[in-house]
Amino acid sequence: MNRRALATATLSSLALASCVGPRGGNDVGRGEPPRPVRPAPSAPAVAVAGNALLSGVRLGPSVASLRIDPAKAGAVLAAFRTSCVALVKRSDTSGLTRTADWQPACAAAANWPDGEAASFFPRYFETAQIGTGDLYATGYYEPEIQGSQQPSLGYDVPIYGLPDDMVTADLGQFSPDLKGKTIRGKVQGGKLVPYPDRAQIQGGAIQGHAPVIGYAADKIAFFFLQIQGSGQLRQPDGSIVRIGYAGQNGQPYTGIGKWMLAQGMLAPGQASMQGIVGWLKAHPDQADAVMNQNHSFVFFKYLNGPPLGALGVPVAGHVSVAADPAYTPLGAPVWLAPDRPEAAGLWVAQDTGGAIKGANRFDTFWGAGDEAARIAGGMSARGRAYLLLPVGTVERLSGGQQGHDGQIPQA
What we know:
Blueprint (H helix, E strand, L loop, with lengths): L10 H6 L35 H4 L1 E3 L10 H18 L15 H7 L7 H8 E6 L3 E9 L1 E5 L8 E4 L6 E4 L11 E7 L2 E4 L3 H5 L9 E5 L2 H10 L1 E5 L5 E9 L7 H7 L10 H10 L1 H8 L6 E6 L16 E4 L9 E6 L6 E7 L9 E8 L1 H9 L1 E11 L2 H6 L13
Parallel strand pairs: 3-16, 4-10, 13-15
Antiparallel strand pairs: 1-2, 2-17, 3-17, 4-9, 5-9, 6-7, 7-8, 10-11, 11-12, 13-16, 14-15, 14-17
Protein name: peptidoglycan lytic exotransglycosylase
Enzyme class: lyase
Pfam families: 3D, MltA
């Protein structure tokens, strides 16, 4: 939502620190039709230290054996179609795929009827288990809070745009080993130093350097909106404006729920979004100190349309998930089999999040509204996860030498 790789986490990540960031019954899938022709070789995927390929990849169950909900399959196909513009161009840091691998499925998706989407996925994909395949899924949503574009009585929490003194450094330009890594800071005395953290910003450290694009009425509600990475401001006249992620201060994200549990402020089972909000509102004299345990601070801009994910395409409730691109190619469909039925089935990885790290770690997006907030706020699911990769991917990665259990041999 543009969650925005460094800044965000999910509501449940608030509670458990595993987040920015921007998650139903099924019918039996149809029989598996002939496999597509594999694409010609292309440039290899980009490998990074700690990725899906290095974690181990093995074939999962056939896509035809999954109980794909035809109705949801149509929505997922539509989302996959929008992702293809980026999917066939971007390097895959998971080490699993090449851009050409996606071309047959993307070409077919362009004209495939949404009503027949359940037959599309068995035709063009196979499932792959990354590492153990053990799933951990949380949830995020698009919150609505009381806010105003202009200063007004009762609206006194500043919403900052990007500061003019914040510098972003691409570390990959200095060392190949740091490819894909960035840091943010500011120049002070000729040196790059860390940018102010949340407490310092709240204390006025960036006044004069960052535009105030609006004002929130409730600092706790705004804190949670920052974690989500985008949201809606309901203004005093009832009108709605959308704001989205513009940047982040480069400071680490800390899930305050986990910290509160460690301090004895919350009992086990209370560390949901609702439990955290309830505690903060009941202890207003301590709320700032608790929220400042999260040093990360998000800057915003106005949006003219729906929230966008890290792929630069709109995220859709009940369809999009945030994932770690080192373990899941962004744009790829994924199959979740969790212990929470709401999160079961097909999704598309279209977003990232600061606390969404590692294999089989997903953040499910639930859209906007009270029901979305309720589901996302309590989502903490375990189970199994499979990536849907172009047919032939696992065989190619193994060099045709998979073990008897489908595992790619490790060096």
